[in-house]
Amino acid sequence: MNDIVDISLLSDKAILQKVGWFIQQTRIKQNLTQSELAAQAAISRSTLSLVERGDNISLINLIKILRTLNALYVLNDFEVREELSPLQLAKGEKQQRKRASRSQSEDPDINDLGW
What we know:
Largest sheet: none
Structural class: mainly alpha
Distance between the termini: 56 Å
CATH class of the domain at 7-78: Mainly Alpha
Order of helices and strands: HHHHH
Number of helices: 5
């Protein structure tokens, strides 16, 4: 399971198994039993067992487990970094977008009147 693989090529189940393997190996390195980690994370041992097997659990339980293992660093890639164009930098603009939108030229159905 330590093979270097482009994660985008994996199935959802394979990614869940990879997460479970990470949690299991981190727990073992910290010399914690499933029961000890589950108690510290305030979840059931069966929930921890599920995630280690690669089954689906709630996101809040995953966060509890990672926090208890001091492994929240794996979520650092979720941080949104705003990239400004040189033109925006020159103008001193730093407005964050609030929603996604399409220009009319990108949406071919916008001019279709249905006739």
